[in-house]
Tat (Twin-arginine translocation) pathway signal sequence
Amino acid sequence: MGNNRRDFLKQAGLAGAGMMMGGSAAGRQTPFKQSREQTFNMHGYAAPPLETVRVGLVGIGARGSGTVERLAVIEGVEIKALCDLYADRVSDAIDSIREFSDHDPDAYSGSEDAWKQLCEREDIDLVYTATPWELHAPIAVYAMEQGKHVFTELPVATTIEDCWKVVETSERTRRHCYMEGGDCHDGIAAVLLNMARQGFFGELVHGEGHYIHDRVSDTEGRWVRDEDNHNWFGYRPWRLKENVNRNGNLYPGHGLGPLAQMMDLNYGDQMDYMVSISSRDFTMADKMEELSEMDDYYEAYEGLEFRGNMNTSIIRTKRGRTIMLQHDISTPRPGRRFHLISGDQGIFEARPPRIATGHEGWLPEEEFESLVEEYTPPITRMFEQKVRAAGGRRGERSYERVTASDWRLIDCLRNGLPLNKDVYDAALWSCITPLSEWSVAREGNTVKVPDFTGGSWKTNERGMDLSVAEGGTTNLI
């Protein structure tokens, strides 16, 4: 009996090991195009400098109208054209910038293809898009084919196929595709990137990023639910529709972006594979039924299948690091985006902001503040100084809404410098959504993450320059 038992355990152990080996390699499924030969490396590419960056904007809703005002105050920017399906949005945006600037853009509206006319203009260098998500990739591809650089809200695409199309078009046309969203351009994220680069946290091991909130902001900055404007769960009508029949991590970019830059993804490390699972929907379908009794708008959503409230996606990189991304905008939870970066010598946690080193607990607040001051990078200090110096010197308009990301994009284009985020970052950060949908639909099966760099991540130099690059000193005023 003893020998039989030992033989059985030995065989079971070997079988188990075999299963583990199969699960760690053969079990990683590759249903999507994984790589291809790179035709031109856009990472580190510096396009010819532009004395003036002439901009056309497509999609003038809440995001687009704000971007019009932000770009309009940056020196060296000329707003040439605005486009939206609704003419009143375009006219309102034009009126808003005429109050404080000398921009006089042309208007395009009334047709679902009006944006193509804007892209075809010869006097535009940069096309910005803030349309519903499914239009981001078509507009980006068409604009690059017309010789324009692209500035897009996230995601750059909603399918793996379109991610590849955007990458391949950028390489073929040698036009930049820059995706807005979470990054390390300013604030504590820039400080942490500098700390990570200088080895403060040691070898990075793990990071966490989220898109978690359940509220929207009114005109006075208070956080409220806006049922009258169909903004339940923090969505405008078109965003509410994204939650029907799509179950996955729908908006990972804000939480992922800082982690990707700190972990040198696309330049030194790369995502390898991921898994994703979702809870069931505990709130959305029930709320649609409740609201439909008060507002006919919601009747169209009755009986539909909504995504799970909480999605959790876990990624492993080629160097063995892990990333956890969560998405929940429909249960009562305070907002959270970039949350944690952890190394073998230290950790940062965002809520509340604090740092620990060794095994002695969190550092005192004064030590934390001292570290922030010490590691604030030169590019961040320069931008902050420019904003303070600019004040309200273009009419009465304040420069406070201009982001470091906006300014640095224009700065790089004007000075012929490589961008701090490129098309490979846009594709990698965006592909998480369709990959998560695939994994969720298969009960959390592992899925390989495509390498949009064609292997060049192994030799690419680091992105996100934190220094004051030579020539990159464009003024805001």
